[in-house]
Structures are given as C-alpha cells and as structure tokens.
UniProtKB/TrEMBL annotation:
Membrane-spanning ranges: 56-76, 88-114, 142-164
UniProt name for this protein: Keratin-associated protein
Pfam families: DUF1218 (PF06749)
Keyword Amino-acid biosynthesis in annotation: no
Similarity remark: Belongs to the DESIGUAL family.
PANTHER family: OS07G0462200 PROTEIN-RELATED
C-alpha cells in the first residue's frame, strides 16, 4: 500500500495543526513573572510550575516533522512514477510557494525556539548576583506568533503539494501525448 497525495496532505496538515496547538497552549501557560526570593548577596527567582518549555519544544518538533513531510511529499514517486525536479521547478507558481513554505518554516522555528530556549534558561539559571533582578520570563507573544506561522507553513506546503500534483499530471500528459504522436509519425 503506497502513499497517496491525499494521505501525504493529511500528514502534513495534521503535523502542522499539532505544532500550532502546542505553540498556542505553550503561550497561554507561560508565567508572566517569577517570585523574587532575596538571599545573602543573591536573588533567587522561583517560577511557578509551567509546561511552556516542553510544549514549546513539542511545537518545534511537530513543525520540523511537518516541514520534512511537506518537502518529501513534493518529490515522492506517487504510483511508482517519479518526475524530475526540473519539471516541478519549471512552474513559477510552484517555485514561489516552495520558497515561501521554506521561509515560513524557518521563521516559525525561530519564533518558537527563541522564547522556548529563553524560558528554559530562565528556569535553570534562577540564581542571580544582581540584586536588582526582576525574575523575567521569555518575551510574551513570540510562542503564539510562532504557532500561527507554523500553521501557515503547513498550509504553504499543502499549496506547493497541490501545485506539484498539477505539474506532475501535466508532465505525464505531455509524455503520453508525445509518445502517441511519435507512434502516429512512425505508423505513417
């Protein structure tokens, strides 16, 4: 049982939606600030238990899987028939959407990783020698924005997949019509 274009599209969309959901939940669960606990020549920041860091990493993981599945789905030989990449990139529209999908995937990864890593660092490095520390957290809004861009990336991969399918069908029609024309010329 081979992979169909419909199944590939469902995989890309499903992984993109999971990345979006985990990113939005991570944004909503992120604490606004920590509690300052003064000590002798140090300040300890105590943060409430929050799942934003693991949810952020899950969102990034599903984004990577969605982008990887989107990329592979474009060049996969459906029904045992492969198409040269040059045929796909001959279409300007496909080329544009392919590059937009790559760009939005990278942008989403940056927007998701930046606050996740920052929050992780705040939680692990919570002892400060600067007594004026205010127990900061990662910048608000980046995880949610990254989640939306992650969903956009999955949608752009789906559009590129539809355009690749059209280019694939056109290519096979040209090959089939070309072989029929050659058969007619040879018969004359």
């Amino acid at each position: 049982m081979g992979v169909s274009i419909k199944r590939a599209a469902l995989i890309v969309a499903g992984l993109g939606v999971l990345s979006f959901i985990f990113g939005v939940i991570a944004e909503n669960k992120k604490p606004t600030a920590g509690t300052l606990i003064p000590g002798k020549d140090v300040v300890v920041c105590k943060y409430p238990s929050d799942p934003s860091v693991p949810l952020g990493y899950l969102s990034v993981s599903f984004l990577i899987l969605s982008s990887f599945a989107g990329y592979l789905s474009l060049f996969y030989p459906y029904k045992g028939k492969s198409v040269p990449q040059s045929v796909l990139f001959r279409s300007t529209t496909f080329f544009v959407f392919f590059n937009i999908a790559l760009f939005t995937g990278g942008l989403a990864a940056v927007l998701l990783l930046w606050p996740t890593i920052t929050e992780h660092l705040h939680l692990t490095r919570n002892v400060h020698h600067n007594l004026a520390t205010q127990c900061p957290t990662a910048k608000t809004g980046l995880l949610g924005g990254g989640a939306f861009v992650s969903l956009d990336s999955a949608l752009f991969w789906l559009v590129a997949l539809m355009l690749a399918d059209n280019a694939r069908q056109d290519h096979f029609d040209e090959v089939e019509n070309g072989s029929k024309a050659q058969a007619l010329v040879a018969a004359e």
